[in-house]
Amino acid sequence: MKRKNITAAVALVVFLAIAISLGAHHQKEANRVACIETLRLIDSATARWEIERYGGSIATIDKLVPTNVIPTWNDIALYGSRNWVGLDPYPPRCPSGGTYTLKRFPEIPTCSIPGHVLEP
Q1: Using one digit for the tens of pLDDT, what is the confidence trace for 70-100?
Q2: What whole-number distance in Å separates Cα of residue 96 and Cα of residue 35?
């Protein structure tokens, strides 16, 4: 009887270890996907800011000449799919704890967490 209890306890510990490991993996992947979506929003907001800055339209985005101007969070805040001003945290942060770096148009914004990359 004692041996059955030990076997059941070991099986339970192994099961819990596997479940925790899988949960951590899924959370890490969910954070990566959320980060990339935020990078996409930042990239879109930067493009919209650049278009308005030069009085163009979305149809002219490919004709915009790259500049050396890097926008600030305040520059692009109103162009996101949601207004970032007033959000906590502001500016937005990666769900994995990384920080976003704004780039000049048409460069792609980045995250400080390896593997959190918005592909062109």
Answers
A1: 888 888 888 775 656 555 557 888 999 999 9
A2: 8
